[in-house]
Amino acid sequence: MSAATATDWELVVGLEVHVELSTRTKMFCACPTDFGGAPNTRVCPVCLGQPGSLPVANRGAVESAIRLGLALGSEIAPTSQFHRKNYFYPDMPKNYQISQYDVPLCSGGVLEVPDGQGGSKRVGITRVHMEEDTGKSLHVGGSGRIHGADHSLVDYNRAGIPLLEIVSEPDLRSAEEARAYLAELRAIVLALGISDARLEEGAMRCDANVSVRPRGGEPGTRCEIKNLNSLRSLGRAIEHEAERQVALITAGEAVQQQTRHWDEDAGRTQLLRTKEATEDYRYFPDPDLVPLEPDQTWIDQLAADLPELPAATRTRLAELGVPAEAARTIVAAGLTPVLDAALGEGADPVEAANWLTNEVAGWAGERGLEPAEVPLAGADLAELIALVAEGTLSKKLAREVLEGTLAGEGSPRRVASDRGLEQISDTGALEAVVDQVIAEQPDAAQKVRDGNDKAIGALVGAVMKATQGKANPQLVNELLRSRLSG
Ligand SMILES: [Zn+2]
Fold it and tell me: Distances in Å between the alpha carbon of 176 and those of 124, 193, 252?
Protein backbone atom coordinates (compact mmCIF):
# COMPACT_ATOMS: atom_id res chain seq x y z
CA MET A 1 0.00 0.00 0.00
CA SER A 2 1.18 3.53 -0.67
CA ALA A 3 2.74 5.57 2.10
CA ALA A 4 -0.28 7.88 2.27
CA THR A 5 -2.66 4.93 2.63
CA ALA A 6 -0.59 3.34 5.32
CA THR A 7 -0.64 6.43 7.53
CA ASP A 8 -3.96 8.19 6.83
CA TRP A 9 -6.23 5.34 5.83
CA GLU A 10 -7.28 2.17 7.49
CA LEU A 11 -7.97 -0.99 5.52
CA VAL A 12 -10.97 -3.12 6.51
CA VAL A 13 -11.12 -6.65 5.12
CA GLY A 14 -13.39 -9.62 5.69
CA LEU A 15 -12.97 -12.91 3.85
CA GLU A 16 -15.49 -15.41 2.54
CA VAL A 17 -13.76 -18.71 1.98
CA HIS A 18 -15.30 -21.68 0.19
CA VAL A 19 -13.90 -25.12 0.91
CA GLU A 20 -14.80 -28.12 -1.25
CA LEU A 21 -15.21 -31.11 1.03
CA SER A 22 -13.46 -34.39 0.26
CA THR A 23 -16.53 -36.55 0.74
CA ARG A 24 -16.89 -39.64 -1.43
CA THR A 25 -20.24 -38.51 -2.81
CA LYS A 26 -21.96 -35.20 -3.55
CA MET A 27 -23.91 -33.07 -1.07
CA PHE A 28 -27.42 -34.26 -1.94
CA CYS A 29 -26.97 -37.32 -4.20
CA ALA A 30 -24.78 -40.41 -4.57
CA CYS A 31 -22.70 -39.16 -7.53
CA PRO A 32 -18.94 -39.58 -6.97
CA THR A 33 -16.89 -36.44 -6.31
CA ASP A 34 -13.51 -37.53 -7.63
CA PHE A 35 -11.77 -35.21 -9.98
CA GLY A 36 -11.12 -35.68 -13.67
CA GLY A 37 -14.00 -37.71 -15.14
CA ALA A 38 -15.17 -37.03 -18.71
CA PRO A 39 -17.57 -34.05 -18.70
CA ASN A 40 -21.12 -34.78 -17.52
CA THR A 41 -20.42 -38.38 -16.50
CA ARG A 42 -20.79 -37.80 -12.74
CA VAL A 43 -24.34 -36.59 -12.77
CA CYS A 44 -27.83 -37.83 -11.90
CA PRO A 45 -31.38 -36.41 -11.83
CA VAL A 46 -30.75 -34.79 -8.41
CA CYS A 47 -27.62 -32.79 -9.26
CA LEU A 48 -29.03 -32.01 -12.71
CA GLY A 49 -32.11 -30.59 -10.99
CA GLN A 50 -34.64 -32.68 -12.88
CA PRO A 51 -38.25 -32.36 -11.77
CA GLY A 52 -39.37 -34.91 -9.22
CA SER A 53 -35.88 -35.77 -7.96
CA LEU A 54 -35.32 -35.46 -4.21
CA PRO A 55 -32.12 -34.37 -2.46
CA VAL A 56 -30.90 -36.06 0.74
CA ALA A 57 -28.18 -34.37 2.83
CA ASN A 58 -24.81 -36.13 3.01
CA ARG A 59 -24.09 -37.08 6.63
CA GLY A 60 -20.32 -37.07 6.06
CA ALA A 61 -20.46 -33.50 4.78
CA VAL A 62 -22.50 -32.39 7.81
CA GLU A 63 -19.93 -34.08 10.03
CA SER A 64 -17.07 -32.20 8.31
CA ALA A 65 -18.92 -28.91 8.77
CA ILE A 66 -19.50 -29.57 12.47
CA ARG A 67 -15.85 -30.52 12.98
CA LEU A 68 -14.64 -27.29 11.37
CA GLY A 69 -17.17 -25.32 13.45
CA LEU A 70 -15.87 -26.99 16.62
CA ALA A 71 -12.26 -26.25 15.63
CA LEU A 72 -13.17 -22.58 15.21
CA GLY A 73 -15.10 -22.42 18.48
CA SER A 74 -18.40 -21.86 16.70
CA GLU A 75 -21.74 -22.66 18.19
CA ILE A 76 -23.36 -25.65 16.48
CA ALA A 77 -27.04 -24.91 15.90
CA PRO A 78 -29.37 -27.57 17.31
CA THR A 79 -31.60 -26.87 14.31
CA SER A 80 -30.53 -25.37 11.02
CA GLN A 81 -32.07 -25.22 7.62
CA PHE A 82 -31.28 -25.41 3.92
CA HIS A 83 -32.55 -22.55 1.78
CA ARG A 84 -32.82 -22.04 -1.94
CA LYS A 85 -30.76 -19.16 -3.28
CA ASN A 86 -32.48 -18.27 -6.53
CA TYR A 87 -30.60 -17.05 -9.56
CA PHE A 88 -30.03 -18.10 -13.14
CA TYR A 89 -26.70 -19.11 -14.54
CA PRO A 90 -26.03 -21.93 -17.03
CA ASP A 91 -23.61 -23.72 -14.70
CA MET A 92 -26.45 -24.24 -12.20
CA PRO A 93 -29.12 -26.51 -13.69
CA LYS A 94 -31.69 -26.09 -10.90
CA ASN A 95 -31.84 -22.28 -11.21
CA TYR A 96 -31.22 -22.16 -7.50
CA GLN A 97 -28.35 -23.18 -5.27
CA ILE A 98 -29.08 -25.04 -2.05
CA SER A 99 -27.38 -23.03 0.67
CA GLN A 100 -28.03 -21.91 4.22
CA TYR A 101 -29.44 -18.49 5.01
CA ASP A 102 -30.68 -17.18 8.35
CA VAL A 103 -30.00 -20.36 10.36
CA PRO A 104 -26.52 -21.64 9.45
CA LEU A 105 -25.11 -24.82 10.98
CA CYS A 106 -22.26 -22.98 12.77
CA SER A 107 -22.31 -19.43 14.15
CA GLY A 108 -19.62 -17.31 15.76
CA GLY A 109 -16.12 -18.40 16.66
CA VAL A 110 -12.59 -17.12 16.47
CA LEU A 111 -9.57 -17.84 14.32
CA GLU A 112 -6.26 -17.03 16.02
CA VAL A 113 -4.03 -15.80 13.23
CA PRO A 114 -0.26 -15.93 13.89
CA ASP A 115 1.23 -12.46 13.40
CA GLY A 116 4.69 -13.76 12.51
CA GLN A 117 6.24 -12.21 15.62
CA GLY A 118 5.30 -14.96 18.02
CA GLY A 119 1.92 -13.45 18.85
CA SER A 120 -1.48 -13.79 17.26
CA LYS A 121 -4.52 -11.78 16.29
CA ARG A 122 -8.07 -12.93 17.01
CA VAL A 123 -10.27 -12.72 13.93
CA GLY A 124 -13.99 -13.22 14.48
CA ILE A 125 -15.84 -15.90 12.55
CA THR A 126 -19.35 -14.85 11.58
CA ARG A 127 -20.59 -18.22 10.40
CA VAL A 128 -19.80 -21.49 8.68
CA HIS A 129 -22.59 -22.73 6.46
CA MET A 130 -23.13 -25.57 4.04
CA GLU A 131 -23.98 -25.34 0.38
CA GLU A 132 -23.40 -27.08 -2.94
CA ASP A 133 -21.00 -26.24 -5.73
CA THR A 134 -22.01 -25.25 -9.25
CA GLY A 135 -20.91 -26.82 -12.53
CA LYS A 136 -18.12 -25.40 -14.64
CA SER A 137 -18.47 -23.30 -17.78
CA LEU A 138 -15.81 -23.54 -20.43
CA HIS A 139 -15.64 -20.58 -22.79
CA VAL A 140 -14.18 -21.61 -26.14
CA GLY A 141 -12.36 -19.22 -28.45
CA GLY A 142 -11.29 -15.64 -27.80
CA SER A 143 -9.57 -14.99 -24.50
CA GLY A 144 -11.16 -17.93 -22.70
CA ARG A 145 -13.38 -15.52 -20.74
CA ILE A 146 -17.06 -15.23 -21.52
CA HIS A 147 -16.71 -11.97 -23.41
CA GLY A 148 -15.56 -12.61 -26.95
CA ALA A 149 -15.86 -16.40 -26.74
CA ASP A 150 -17.16 -18.26 -29.80
CA HIS A 151 -19.30 -20.55 -27.69
CA SER A 152 -19.48 -22.00 -24.18
CA LEU A 153 -19.70 -25.54 -22.86
CA VAL A 154 -20.84 -26.65 -19.45
CA ASP A 155 -19.74 -29.61 -17.32
CA TYR A 156 -21.98 -30.57 -14.38
CA ASN A 157 -19.56 -33.03 -12.74
CA ARG A 158 -18.82 -30.45 -10.04
CA ALA A 159 -22.47 -29.44 -9.59
CA GLY A 160 -23.61 -30.55 -6.14
CA ILE A 161 -20.18 -31.15 -4.57
CA PRO A 162 -20.41 -30.14 -0.90
CA LEU A 163 -18.99 -26.75 0.01
CA LEU A 164 -18.46 -24.97 3.28
CA GLU A 165 -18.52 -21.21 3.30
CA ILE A 166 -16.54 -19.65 6.15
CA VAL A 167 -17.35 -15.98 6.64
CA SER A 168 -15.05 -13.84 8.78
CA GLU A 169 -15.85 -10.61 10.57
CA PRO A 170 -14.24 -7.54 8.92
CA ASP A 171 -11.41 -7.75 11.45
CA LEU A 172 -8.44 -7.91 9.07
CA ARG A 173 -6.41 -4.70 8.72
CA SER A 174 -3.76 -5.51 6.14
CA ALA A 175 -3.04 -7.73 3.14
CA GLU A 176 -0.53 -9.66 5.28
CA GLU A 177 -3.16 -10.38 7.93
CA ALA A 178 -5.58 -11.58 5.25
CA ARG A 179 -2.94 -13.91 3.83
CA ALA A 180 -2.08 -15.21 7.30
CA TYR A 181 -5.78 -15.80 8.01
CA LEU A 182 -6.26 -17.80 4.81
CA ALA A 183 -3.07 -19.80 5.42
CA GLU A 184 -4.15 -20.63 8.99
CA LEU A 185 -7.66 -21.61 7.93
CA ARG A 186 -6.14 -23.85 5.26
CA ALA A 187 -3.83 -25.46 7.84
CA ILE A 188 -6.84 -26.17 10.08
CA VAL A 189 -8.78 -27.69 7.18
CA LEU A 190 -5.75 -29.89 6.35
CA ALA A 191 -5.31 -30.92 10.00
CA LEU A 192 -8.99 -31.94 10.10
CA GLY A 193 -8.57 -33.82 6.79
CA ILE A 194 -11.90 -32.52 5.47
CA SER A 195 -10.58 -31.15 2.15
CA ASP A 196 -7.37 -31.18 0.18
CA ALA A 197 -7.78 -27.37 0.17
CA ARG A 198 -5.93 -26.80 -3.10
CA LEU A 199 -6.22 -23.11 -3.84
CA GLU A 200 -4.99 -23.37 -7.42
CA GLU A 201 -7.48 -26.09 -8.34
CA GLY A 202 -10.38 -24.27 -6.71
CA ALA A 203 -10.93 -26.73 -3.85
CA MET A 204 -10.44 -23.70 -1.62
CA ARG A 205 -11.60 -20.33 -2.97
CA CYS A 206 -11.54 -16.93 -1.42
CA ASP A 207 -13.50 -13.72 -1.94
CA ALA A 208 -12.41 -10.58 -0.12
CA ASN A 209 -14.66 -7.74 1.05
CA VAL A 210 -12.48 -4.66 1.02
CA SER A 211 -13.17 -1.11 2.16
CA VAL A 212 -11.07 1.81 3.37
CA ARG A 213 -11.80 4.53 5.90
CA PRO A 214 -9.90 7.43 7.36
CA ARG A 215 -8.05 6.06 10.38
CA GLY A 216 -10.60 5.78 13.19
CA GLY A 217 -13.37 7.13 10.92
CA GLU A 218 -16.71 5.88 9.63
CA PRO A 219 -16.76 2.61 7.66
CA GLY A 220 -16.46 2.99 3.88
CA THR A 221 -18.40 1.28 1.09
CA ARG A 222 -17.02 -2.16 0.40
CA CYS A 223 -16.29 -4.03 -2.79
CA GLU A 224 -16.20 -7.80 -3.08
CA ILE A 225 -13.25 -9.20 -5.02
CA LYS A 226 -13.54 -12.59 -6.69
CA ASN A 227 -11.05 -14.98 -8.25
CA LEU A 228 -8.38 -14.98 -5.55
CA ASN A 229 -6.89 -18.40 -6.11
CA SER A 230 -3.58 -18.05 -4.33
CA LEU A 231 -2.18 -16.35 -1.23
CA ARG A 232 -0.23 -14.12 -3.59
CA SER A 233 -3.35 -13.06 -5.53
CA LEU A 234 -5.19 -12.36 -2.28
CA GLY A 235 -2.45 -10.05 -1.01
CA ARG A 236 -1.96 -8.23 -4.31
CA ALA A 237 -5.70 -7.80 -4.94
CA ILE A 238 -6.35 -6.30 -1.50
CA GLU A 239 -3.47 -3.84 -1.86
CA HIS A 240 -4.55 -2.84 -5.34
CA GLU A 241 -8.21 -2.46 -4.38
CA ALA A 242 -7.34 -0.33 -1.34
CA GLU A 243 -5.27 1.99 -3.51
CA ARG A 244 -8.10 2.24 -6.06
CA GLN A 245 -10.63 3.17 -3.38
CA VAL A 246 -8.33 5.70 -1.71
CA ALA A 247 -7.67 7.31 -5.10
CA LEU A 248 -11.43 7.58 -5.77
CA ILE A 249 -12.19 9.13 -2.39
CA THR A 250 -9.20 11.48 -2.58
CA ALA A 251 -10.45 12.65 -5.99
CA GLY A 252 -13.83 13.47 -4.44
CA GLU A 253 -15.66 10.49 -5.93
CA ALA A 254 -17.67 7.84 -4.13
CA VAL A 255 -16.81 4.14 -3.96
CA GLN A 256 -19.67 2.13 -5.47
CA GLN A 257 -20.64 -1.18 -3.92
CA GLN A 258 -19.52 -3.64 -6.57
CA THR A 259 -18.38 -7.15 -7.23
CA ARG A 260 -14.98 -7.02 -8.90
CA HIS A 261 -12.83 -9.61 -10.61
CA TRP A 262 -9.10 -9.84 -9.86
CA ASP A 263 -7.06 -10.01 -13.06
CA GLU A 264 -3.80 -11.61 -11.96
CA ASP A 265 -1.98 -10.90 -15.24
CA ALA A 266 -3.01 -7.25 -15.43
CA GLY A 267 -2.53 -6.82 -11.67
CA ARG A 268 -5.81 -4.99 -11.15
CA THR A 269 -9.47 -5.49 -10.26
CA GLN A 270 -12.20 -5.02 -12.86
CA LEU A 271 -15.91 -4.41 -12.48
CA LEU A 272 -17.85 -7.68 -12.69
CA ARG A 273 -21.28 -6.43 -11.62
CA THR A 274 -22.92 -3.94 -9.37
CA LYS A 275 -23.50 -5.80 -6.15
CA GLU A 276 -26.78 -7.65 -5.74
CA ALA A 277 -28.64 -7.16 -2.50
CA THR A 278 -29.38 -10.32 -0.52
CA GLU A 279 -33.11 -9.89 -1.15
CA ASP A 280 -32.54 -10.24 -4.89
CA TYR A 281 -31.98 -13.96 -4.31
CA ARG A 282 -35.46 -14.54 -2.87
CA TYR A 283 -34.18 -17.06 -0.33
CA PHE A 284 -36.78 -19.51 0.96
CA PRO A 285 -36.52 -22.78 2.87
CA ASP A 286 -36.02 -25.78 0.61
CA PRO A 287 -39.25 -27.78 1.05
CA ASP A 288 -37.49 -30.98 -0.09
CA LEU A 289 -35.01 -31.01 2.80
CA VAL A 290 -35.72 -31.64 6.47
CA PRO A 291 -34.01 -29.34 9.01
CA LEU A 292 -30.56 -30.42 10.20
CA GLU A 293 -30.79 -31.48 13.83
CA PRO A 294 -27.44 -32.96 14.84
CA ASP A 295 -27.60 -35.08 17.95
CA GLN A 296 -25.71 -33.55 20.92
CA THR A 297 -23.94 -36.83 21.74
CA TRP A 298 -22.71 -36.95 18.14
CA ILE A 299 -21.39 -33.38 18.43
CA ASP A 300 -19.72 -34.21 21.77
CA GLN A 301 -18.08 -37.25 20.22
CA LEU A 302 -16.80 -35.21 17.26
CA ALA A 303 -15.44 -32.59 19.69
CA ALA A 304 -13.65 -35.27 21.71
CA ASP A 305 -12.14 -36.75 18.54
CA LEU A 306 -10.78 -33.50 17.06
CA PRO A 307 -7.12 -33.86 16.05
CA GLU A 308 -4.34 -31.59 17.26
CA LEU A 309 -4.87 -28.21 15.59
CA PRO A 310 -2.09 -26.12 13.99
CA ALA A 311 -1.57 -23.71 16.92
CA ALA A 312 -1.14 -26.61 19.34
CA THR A 313 1.18 -28.39 16.90
CA ARG A 314 3.41 -25.31 16.62
CA THR A 315 3.59 -25.03 20.41
CA ARG A 316 4.51 -28.70 20.72
CA LEU A 317 7.21 -28.39 18.05
CA ALA A 318 8.62 -25.30 19.78
CA GLU A 319 8.91 -27.32 22.99
CA LEU A 320 10.93 -29.91 21.04
CA GLY A 321 13.36 -27.16 19.99
CA VAL A 322 12.10 -26.72 16.42
CA PRO A 323 12.55 -23.07 15.34
CA ALA A 324 9.28 -21.15 14.97
CA GLU A 325 9.75 -20.50 11.25
CA ALA A 326 10.33 -24.19 10.49
CA ALA A 327 7.34 -25.18 12.61
CA ARG A 328 5.14 -22.73 10.69
CA THR A 329 6.30 -24.10 7.33
CA ILE A 330 5.77 -27.73 8.34
CA VAL A 331 2.30 -27.09 9.76
CA ALA A 332 1.23 -24.91 6.81
CA ALA A 333 2.48 -27.54 4.35
CA GLY A 334 0.59 -30.26 6.23
CA LEU A 335 3.81 -32.23 6.83
CA THR A 336 3.25 -32.77 10.57
CA PRO A 337 2.31 -36.47 10.14
CA VAL A 338 5.64 -37.16 8.36
CA LEU A 339 7.54 -35.34 11.10
CA ASP A 340 5.70 -37.17 13.87
CA ALA A 341 6.33 -40.52 12.21
CA ALA A 342 10.06 -39.70 11.93
CA LEU A 343 10.15 -38.70 15.61
CA GLY A 344 8.46 -42.00 16.41
CA GLU A 345 11.42 -43.71 14.72
CA GLY A 346 13.81 -41.82 16.96
CA ALA A 347 14.81 -38.97 14.61
CA ASP A 348 16.20 -35.78 16.08
CA PRO A 349 13.34 -33.20 15.99
CA VAL A 350 15.46 -30.27 14.77
CA GLU A 351 17.21 -32.33 12.08
CA ALA A 352 13.90 -33.79 10.90
CA ALA A 353 12.31 -30.33 10.83
CA ASN A 354 15.26 -28.96 8.85
CA TRP A 355 15.00 -31.66 6.20
CA LEU A 356 11.25 -31.16 5.85
CA THR A 357 11.52 -27.37 5.68
CA ASN A 358 14.62 -26.99 3.54
CA GLU A 359 14.13 -29.86 1.13
CA VAL A 360 10.80 -31.66 1.23
CA ALA A 361 8.38 -28.70 1.44
CA GLY A 362 10.00 -27.04 -1.57
CA TRP A 363 10.16 -30.29 -3.50
CA ALA A 364 6.41 -30.85 -2.94
CA GLY A 365 5.58 -27.23 -3.69
CA GLU A 366 7.40 -27.31 -7.03
CA ARG A 367 5.36 -30.31 -8.07
CA GLY A 368 2.07 -28.96 -6.74
CA LEU A 369 1.75 -31.96 -4.43
CA GLU A 370 -0.44 -32.03 -1.36
CA PRO A 371 0.91 -33.34 1.96
CA ALA A 372 -0.82 -36.70 1.69
CA GLU A 373 0.89 -37.19 -1.67
CA VAL A 374 4.46 -36.54 -0.50
CA PRO A 375 6.03 -39.97 -0.98
CA LEU A 376 8.21 -39.87 2.12
CA ALA A 377 7.53 -42.12 5.09
CA GLY A 378 8.62 -40.91 8.51
CA ALA A 379 10.78 -44.02 8.77
CA ASP A 380 12.64 -43.01 5.59
CA LEU A 381 13.31 -39.54 6.95
CA ALA A 382 14.60 -41.03 10.21
CA GLU A 383 16.84 -43.42 8.23
CA LEU A 384 18.26 -40.57 6.16
CA ILE A 385 19.12 -38.60 9.30
CA ALA A 386 20.75 -41.70 10.82
CA LEU A 387 22.86 -42.24 7.68
CA VAL A 388 24.22 -38.71 8.01
CA ALA A 389 24.78 -39.04 11.76
CA GLU A 390 26.73 -42.30 11.37
CA GLY A 391 28.92 -40.79 8.61
CA THR A 392 27.66 -43.00 5.78
CA LEU A 393 26.34 -39.96 3.92
CA SER A 394 27.51 -36.38 3.79
CA LYS A 395 24.76 -33.74 3.87
CA LYS A 396 25.34 -33.17 0.18
CA LEU A 397 25.04 -36.84 -0.74
CA ALA A 398 22.05 -37.17 1.59
CA ARG A 399 20.24 -34.56 -0.51
CA GLU A 400 20.82 -36.68 -3.58
CA VAL A 401 19.63 -39.78 -1.74
CA LEU A 402 16.49 -37.95 -0.60
CA GLU A 403 15.71 -37.07 -4.21
CA GLY A 404 16.00 -40.75 -5.10
CA THR A 405 13.68 -41.75 -2.27
CA LEU A 406 11.14 -39.09 -3.24
CA ALA A 407 11.39 -40.33 -6.85
CA GLY A 408 10.31 -43.78 -5.66
CA GLU A 409 13.69 -45.52 -5.77
CA GLY A 410 13.32 -46.98 -2.28
CA SER A 411 14.52 -46.32 1.23
CA PRO A 412 17.52 -43.99 1.71
CA ARG A 413 19.84 -46.91 2.52
CA ARG A 414 18.76 -48.67 -0.66
CA VAL A 415 19.12 -45.52 -2.80
CA ALA A 416 22.56 -44.78 -1.35
CA SER A 417 23.67 -48.30 -2.16
CA ASP A 418 22.02 -48.50 -5.64
CA ARG A 419 23.39 -45.12 -6.70
CA GLY A 420 26.80 -45.80 -5.12
CA LEU A 421 26.55 -42.70 -2.97
CA GLU A 422 27.81 -43.97 0.36
CA GLN A 423 30.43 -41.75 1.86
CA ILE A 424 33.91 -43.31 1.92
CA SER A 425 34.71 -43.55 5.61
CA ASP A 426 37.17 -46.39 5.23
CA THR A 427 40.71 -45.25 6.08
CA GLY A 428 42.31 -47.89 3.87
CA ALA A 429 40.31 -46.80 0.82
CA LEU A 430 41.22 -43.14 1.31
CA GLU A 431 44.93 -43.44 2.15
CA ALA A 432 45.95 -44.13 -1.44
CA VAL A 433 44.03 -41.10 -2.72
CA VAL A 434 45.49 -38.89 0.02
CA ASP A 435 49.02 -39.99 -0.85
CA GLN A 436 48.43 -39.37 -4.54
CA VAL A 437 47.13 -35.86 -3.88
CA ILE A 438 50.13 -35.05 -1.68
CA ALA A 439 52.43 -36.24 -4.48
CA GLU A 440 50.60 -34.14 -7.06
CA GLN A 441 50.59 -30.96 -4.97
CA PRO A 442 54.02 -30.81 -3.30
CA ASP A 443 53.84 -27.02 -2.77
CA ALA A 444 50.57 -27.10 -0.86
CA ALA A 445 51.81 -30.11 1.10
CA GLN A 446 54.99 -28.27 2.06
CA LYS A 447 53.01 -25.24 3.24
CA VAL A 448 50.97 -27.47 5.57
CA ARG A 449 54.19 -29.03 6.87
CA ASP A 450 55.47 -25.49 7.48
CA GLY A 451 52.45 -24.75 9.65
CA ASN A 452 50.22 -22.89 7.15
CA ASP A 453 46.92 -24.43 8.22
CA LYS A 454 44.86 -22.81 5.49
CA ALA A 455 46.77 -24.64 2.76
CA ILE A 456 45.13 -27.91 3.78
CA GLY A 457 41.86 -26.77 2.18
CA ALA A 458 43.20 -27.22 -1.35
CA LEU A 459 44.36 -30.77 -0.56
CA VAL A 460 41.01 -31.73 1.03
CA GLY A 461 39.27 -30.31 -2.04
CA ALA A 462 41.45 -32.38 -4.36
CA VAL A 463 40.66 -35.58 -2.45
CA MET A 464 36.93 -34.77 -2.51
CA LYS A 465 37.16 -34.20 -6.25
CA ALA A 466 39.04 -37.45 -6.83
CA THR A 467 36.31 -39.35 -4.93
CA GLN A 468 33.39 -37.55 -6.61
CA GLY A 469 32.55 -35.92 -3.30
CA LYS A 470 32.10 -39.23 -1.52
CA ALA A 471 35.06 -39.06 0.89
CA ASN A 472 34.24 -38.27 4.49
CA PRO A 473 35.79 -34.76 4.69
CA GLN A 474 36.58 -35.04 8.38
CA LEU A 475 38.46 -38.28 7.84
CA VAL A 476 40.34 -36.80 4.86
CA ASN A 477 41.38 -33.90 7.05
CA GLU A 478 42.66 -36.22 9.75
CA LEU A 479 44.58 -38.40 7.25
CA LEU A 480 46.23 -35.38 5.60
CA ARG A 481 47.27 -33.96 8.96
CA SER A 482 48.78 -37.22 10.18
CA ARG A 483 50.66 -37.66 6.84
CA LEU A 484 52.01 -34.09 6.90
CA SER A 485 52.78 -33.73 10.58
CA GLY A 486 56.45 -34.44 10.14
ZN1 LIG B 1 -25.94 -36.52 -8.72
Answer: 17, 26, 28
